[in-house]
Amino acid sequence: MALPLRALLGLLFLLLVVGGLLPDHVQAWETGHRRHGRSGHGRNPLVHKHHRPKFKPGPWINAHATFYDGGSGTFGGACGYDDVVNKGYGLETVALSEALFNQGQACGACYEIKCVDDPQWCKPGQPSLFVTATNHCPPNYYESSENGGWCNPPRHHFDIAKPVFSKIADYTAGIIPVSYRRVPCQKRGGIRFTITGNPYFNEVLVWNVGGAGDVVSLQVKGNKNLKWTPMKRTWGQRWVTDAMMVGESLTFRVRASDGRFSTAWHIAPKNWQFGQTFEGKNFK
Description:
By secondary structure, the chain is an alpha+beta fold. It folds into 2 domains: about 60-180, Beta Barrel (Barwin-like endoglucanases); about 190-280, Sandwich (Immunoglobulin-like). The chain contains 5 helices and 14 strands. The chain has helices at about 5-20, 25-35, 85-90, 100, 160-165, and strands at about 60-70, 95, 110-115, 130-135, 155-160, 175-185, 190-200, 200-205, 215-220, 230-235, 240, 250-255, 260-270, 275-280. An 8-stranded antiparallel sheet has the order 13-12-9-10-11-8-7-14, with no helix packed on it. Strands 1-5-2-4-3-6 form a 6-stranded mixed β-barrel. The protein is elongated and about 65 Å long.
């Protein structure tokens, strides 16, 4: 007995979702709708679009900040960005305390920082410093949190490169009270994906991420045999998989902490090589 037309259309829509062939906004709507257990009550999912708002500045929070010398060759760190200056982050970078770093998930997040409540050391007018998280300030449990163990949990603390620390305070202060908030990251160009490793261990560095700036998940898909495959964070913003990626045109899907995602369709051609960097669309 032939299936009713409505049942056939429903089956076709399900196959498109599973195969990843629907546009991103439709897949996002469908996934979110099913997660909340709603059927749509007759609304057409192809018409109803689900859009998350752009990342907005967060609330102001009190913390403290110190600085490190930041000499030549020291601007790498625990996020895996290597040479952050040449990757577009400049000197406006910061190492986060244990409580903020969140095992590397905060890598790429952007902050506005002001020196506060210390007229002796704060620069007049309370200028703002805008920085990107590119490193980890590890705890020092041999020192008190109030005297040397500045990055011990649960403290919120920023260790800033000396050249930019001096924009908000006199560096002779050593440590200063600050207020900070998360802000949208403003980046030039698109999200970059640098592929390294070998055919049996693929590593992808995700960088130059706008909007929320951080990445909570990464998926990769080929044009042939490689279906949508979650990649695993190994450290910072370096993600790995042992799935076979070689020989396929690659698509990457990035999801940020605000729930928004960006899909870079077929940005790596079939003949891509390890060590190459590819660019996809960015968050606004």
